[in-house]
Amino acid sequence: MAEYTEKPRWMAEPSLRDIPQEKLDFLQKMVFESRDLSQKELLPFLIALAQRSRTANITFSSEEMNTIIEAIKKYSTPEELLKMNQIMRLMHRGRL
């Protein structure tokens, strides 16, 4: 599995300055790994991701998630926004 190498623009958003870098890195890895998944593949991926976040002891408050989502949206293409919305619906439905 390939790794992302450059820091995306959304991670430099000033609103994210109080969120630990390890959390931002974890989310960027999730975005990178889910990039080419079909909708059918997303739910198993998100379940596995939830397990990985518990194992790594990474949790997000509602405030952190809202701030991060807004920062990512500023720099997303229409296709990325569509994928993000799919992921958010699956996460909400599955309560991950």
What do these coordinates show?
The protein has 96 residues and is mainly alpha-helical. The chain has a domain at 62-96. Helix content is 64%, strand content 0%. The protein has four helices and no strands. The longest helix is centred in the middle third of the chain and has 17 residues, at 39-55. It is globular. It starts with 20 loop residues before the first helix and ends with a helix. The model has no long low-confidence stretch (mean pLDDT 81).
Strand count:
0
Distance between the termini: 24 Å
- Give the count of helical stretches: 4
Oligomer state of the chains in this structure: single chain
SS content category = mainly alpha
Largest sheet geometry: none
Low-confidence residue ranges: none
In terms of DSSP E residues, the strand content is: under 5%
Helical residues, percent: 55-70%
What value does the Rg take, in angstroms? 13 Å
Q: Based on CA inertia axes, which overall geometry fits?
A: globular
| Order of H and E elements | HHHH
Write the layout of secondary structure elements.
Layout: H1 21-34, H2 39-55, H3 62-74, H4 78-94
Helix pairs in contact: 2-4
Summary keywords:
mainly alpha, 96 residues
Condensed summary:
By secondary structure, the protein is mainly alpha-helical.
